[in-house]
Amino acid sequence: MKRETEGREVKEDVKLKILNAAKKLFAKKGFEGTTVRQICDEAGVALALVSYHFGGKENVFFALFETFAPEFLQTEYELKDPVEDLSSLIREFTLFRLAEPDLINMLQQEVMMQSPRLERVQSVIHGLWRQLIMILEKGRADGHFHYDSLRHTVQSIIGTLVFARSTAFLDPVFEQAGETAQASENGDEVVRYTTGFIMNALQCRQAQGL
């Protein structure tokens, strides 16, 4: 029994090494630019183990989203307080983005390329976007949120949550404007900035007290 337990632990450890290596490489090189050999070299495992544990590179890719996707993506909000619900959604996704930047980079690449893998990747996160739609509709019906187009509002919020991030790319622009480069904000600051930006766009006065 002890040997079986140890064997399972070793197997899971190998799988996690492969997944962590793949996540790093996919985020940096993209799916097409990453080979199975590179993943195995990065993970420090034998080449055959990717096929043994996952059946190929594409399955490793999908396993990343299934393994590292947080539980809150499946949250069903009660919609009793849409302002609080939206604030919670923004906070949870922002913290997820900060905790898993490589996974977010992978998602960004798939969206930008409209890759053949996108439909399956989207299935992991579509439930959250449906919840976002319901929160916005309830908030507008209750008079908390103000917007004209649901489609454009949802797309703008998703763009803010998925694509907005602190980056050194714009540092030269800020320096020219008289602002010095700053260290990365902590999680609470990023959540506060992101929440304020979205709530202000929705003209939500109630959110000022959050």
How would you explain this protein's 3D organization?
The structure is a single chain. With 210 residues, the chain is an all-alpha fold. It has 2 domains: 1-64, Arc Repressor Mutant, subunit A (Orthogonal Bundle); 69-202, Tetracycline Repressor, domain 2 (Orthogonal Bundle), CATH 1.10.357. It has helices at residues 2-29, 36-43, 48-53, 57-68, 82-99, 101-113, 118-141, 150-163, 171-176, 187-201. The chain starts with a helix and ends in a 9-residue tail after the last helix. Mean pLDDT is 88; it is low at 2-6.
Shape: globular
User: Count of DSSP helices?
Assistant: 10
Structural class: mainly alpha
The whole-number mean of residue pLDDT values reads 88
GO biological process, one term: regulation of DNA-templated transcription
Protein name: TetR family transcriptional regulator
GO molecular function: DNA binding
InterPro entries: DNA-bd_HTH_TetR-type_CS, Homeodomain-like_sf, HTH-type_TetR-like_transc_reg, HTH_TetR, Tet_transcr_reg_TetR-rel_C_sf
Which features does this protein show?
mainly alpha, Arc Repressor Mutant, subunit A, Tetracycline Repressor, domain 2, 2 domains, globular, Homeodomain-like_sf, TetR family transcriptional regulator, DNA binding, DNA-binding, HTH-type_TetR-like_transc_reg
Quick rundown:
By secondary structure, this protein is an all-alpha fold.
Task: Present the secondary structure layout.
Elements: H1 2-29, H2 36-43, H3 48-53, H4 57-68, H5 82-99, H6 101-113, H7 118-141, H8 150-163, H9 171-176, H10 187-201
